[in-house]
User: Fold these one by one.
Assistant:
Number 1:
Amino acid sequence: METKVIDVDPLNIEEEKIKEAAQAIKEDKTVVFPTETVYGLGANGLSENAVRKIFEAKGRPYDNPLILHVSNVRSFLEYTYISYALLEKIERLLPGPITFVLKKREVVPDIVTAGKDTLAIRMPAHPVALKLIEYAEVPIAAPSANISGKPSPTMSEHVLKDMLGKVDYIIIGGKVEFGVESTIIDLTQGKIPIILRPGPIPPEKLKEIFGDIIIPDFVYGKIEPDYIKSPGMKYRHYAPNTPVILVEHDDANTMVKKVLEEVKSYNNPLVLCLKEHVGYYKDHNINFDTIGSESNYYEFAVKLFEMLRKYDEKVDAMIIEGIEDKGIGIAVMNRLRKAAYHIL
Ligand code: AMP
Ligand code: MG
């Protein structure tokens, strides 16, 4: 399949380029586009024929539902059953890196929700994504634009590598802002929202808006969910081909010791460490790179998938220092624990 690649400057968007891609959406074609979280692989979310092409391009199992992307608040009323009181609350988070699971309306085809009666819906904050949806005049169903199971794409090279020849259009719009997928919360189980996937919007922020919030243990990525509420979670995710070894410890000295011990088991390992720990490794003749700092977990999040892809198949193990389950750090550790082959 021939893929047309369009370059767009998100700070100075040429409308004609977006209109061309939006026309493709109207014709049931597939379009990769940037969002503030990761790149998405989109198609007309009201067309079964179009949505099927997403699953085919990614090699995604059909029982793993997609997120419906919309460009305005009104769309929540069109595609889900939601009270005005609840809509008022979620409006405070729109547009933004958060997805809401709500009861779905009939117009949304079953293929989007994998046959469930609930729909995951989100209004992204990226100007290119918003314009694309607006001009397409339909909601856009979109998962992350990676081959199923691989790390999500956060840079143009990633989408070109995974999706060239598999989709009709790729819109290149620079590097993403957050680098981890949206927070997902379930609003269908009683009055208290349940976090299904941690993301850029941390629990503290949700507590401000909803008062209370349930954080099941599986959100930390340490155990499989006992009931598969978020179906995507039953598959191994975010995993490069090279094994990832995650090292967790709240004491820096102990963590570094574990890393140095683990390094000995491989011929060509790479250590991905915090900036603050460079001093520990640089005298050991060890191949290392930094992945953010203790003082800025956002930087860690935005570099995470970039690093997993950069060193994939270049080394024989990636030994990664973990961070605290705090703020966006919860999302980072959730992805790392799912990508990990071993956790030490
Ligand atoms: P992706 O956009 O690739 O991160 O995948 C979307 C994810 O959203 C899926 O893997 C599910 O975990 C989640 N999701 C989508 N629809 C639902 C739903 N109806 N209920 C719960 N989780 C959902
Ligand atoms: Mg994904």
Note: Residues 244-343 form a domain with the Rossmann fold fold (CATH 3.40.50.11030).
Number 2:
Amino acid sequence: MVADVQFGPMRIHQDQLQVLLVFAKADSQCNGFRKACEKAKFKCTVAREPRAALDCFLDNLHDIVVIDHRNPRQIDAEALCRSIKSSKLSENTVIVGVVRRVNREDLSVRSFIAAGFTRRYTENPSIMACYNELLQLEFGEVRSQLKLRACNSVFTALEKSQDAIEITSENHVIQYVNPAFETTMGYQSGELIGKELAEVPINEKKADLLDRINSCIRIGKEWEGVYYAKNKNGDNIQQNVKIIPVVGQGGKIRHYVSIVCNGTSKTEEIHECVAPDSQTGGHMSNWKDRRKSSLDIRYAGSRTNEAYSERRHSSLARMHSMTMEAPITKAINIISAAQESSPMPVTEALDHVLEILRTTELYSPQFNAKDDDPHATDLVGGLMSDGLQRLPGTNYVLGTTTFQQGARSPATHSSLQDLPSRIAQAVEDEEHWDFDIFRLEAVTYNQPLVYLALKTYARFRICEFLNCSELTLRAWLEVIEANYHKDNPYHNSTHAADVLHATAYFLSRERVKEALDPVDEVAALIAATIHDVDHPGRTNAFLCNSGSELAILYNDIAVLESHHAALAFQLTVGDDKCNIFKNMERSQYRVLRQGIVDMVLATEMTKHFEHVNRFVTSVTQPLALLMENEEMGKDQEAISAMLKMPENRMLIKRMMIKCADVSNPCRALELCIKWAARISEEYFTQTDEEKQRNLPVVMPAFDRSTCSIPKAQISFIDYFITEMFDAWDAFLDLPDLMQHLDNNFKYWKGLDEMQLRTLRPPPKNPGKP
Ligand code: AMP
Ligand code: ZN
């Protein structure tokens, strides 16, 4: 009888089974087996004594040997069994000992097994009993032995492979290494086998990688990437490694096979993942991923140095220590899974997407500011860095600061009703975009914030929301305004009032009203009011470079913005007279406070692109899609729901305060020019001080003797304003602002073309700058 046996991916041909019967006499038991062999169509040979039996076995290598164990005086069965077993050729032979029925049943089989027997057969000459025994052996022991024999060929392949191969258990214990691995790593197999990966320096990082495999296997992948290992000499070796989890019983990973490809990078290879096979109870199935490898190929592309590997390792380690999946991990897994069934061009595009998603600064573009545009370079560098790279030789100056506890000029007007007419007139058109903040600055003797805020806060019924009196609000506004520096050319309370005005204007647009809740409106107005309080007229980079007290306090991270938010709350809650939050319910106060802090921190320019790009991806783009549907009469509800999502409301609020904060290029030309002059003057003063104190010059282009203000404004608009306001306009519809922006840009361009280095009045209004 011949049959084929499937062993994993291997098909093994099974020849007719050969049985050797060793019986001194042809008794009924011997005949029973002989006849049973005939019935089963096995080839049967009978030997009468041990010597002949051994010779016969060595000649034919029978699959089953049955030895008569009933009469030790005739045949010493255990000695014969040991002799057969001592030959290496008998490794896969099944040996059965026939014992007497009486007295033997309850004996332990231990000595039997020690002698090398596979099974004990209690005498029973019935042909059927013998036949059944042989059949059970054929489908059990013999077949298993056949498969084990085939393993020898697999091990031979491993031993001769030029790729270094290591097999570990699911617990990361090294079980096997091949000679190529020994050569590559400089260790003998004996030094490795039985040890945990982490115990051996070559593998100290691999345990992390193996954990990573667990997430790969869920989507049917092996891991491939570049891996840095230490050989026995301590040298770092860059290796192209494939790690393949081998799934065993119960669908669990039982082994990991690591193949170090000695040779060219194989990153373009096809990935294949094999499901649990027939050997372990599952059905034999391969699901083959006939496409360029995706998930892990990415590691190969950009990984040319050790630092990369270190970073990757530490992030993997961090990832594994988390019990819950981060959203980005989920997103990556979903995309990877989608790649499985995608056509090649989609798969390749998704590979690219995954590569981008794996970077950390997801929303921050990398700049290549043109060498020939120092204004752009300085603005990008000056506003978007902490200046630390220019730190050498800094003297840290720690000082003490006192803050204004109240109004510098006593409050003379207790409510909006008794405002002097010049102030009342100046705030009259506060609802319009073309409102003139500089006029209010003049008529209030540099207290525009208090008066504008009183009017605006009343319009938005802020006192009602906060449950505070107008008196408290006014006292609070006076404290806040008093803590803006009057002598800053730009970052004074007029700038805060300007930002408040823009914020209120945005809050009045339909789209924003639709999205935000009352608490968001209150947070936005308060955030705008306080967002630059106690600004010293210097940039974050300057404060870090000069080792200022604030930079030390906030660890050089978002120094000013942290200070504005923290100080505002200190001033507010530290004095009952001006504590506008004192009557609020705790939980609502927490929500409001969180909204305010988040918005103030959003004004930090290092995060500019992150905020803008997140807004575009999460708000404007989905909105555009939903609006296409809306034109067909659907989805108004979906739009509302999307806008009202807490995450989106937060992005809208951040974008709103950011746009308000730098809206000066979108103001009427006269106002825009004044703002440009003020910010330039502030930058010039900083450069003067940097030069004078021998500090790093953060923005060398902003040197009063050489700076081109038009060029600086063109760069500021190009880099920070255009894209952001395009997105904001797409969301809110702001034709007036965009018209001003176009005009102003043209104005600066015109000046630049005339190569003017100083400000000129606008063409329409020559007498007024
Ligand atoms: P903030 O300090 O909160 O007002 O953040 C806005 C940033 O944009 C500040 O660093 C300003 O210096 C900068 N900025 C605002 N307007 C202009 C402008 N017209 N030109 C150049 N920089 C500006
Ligand atoms: Zn500001």
Note: Residues 495, 499, 531-532, 603, 661 surround zinc ion (ligand 2) (CB under 6 Å).
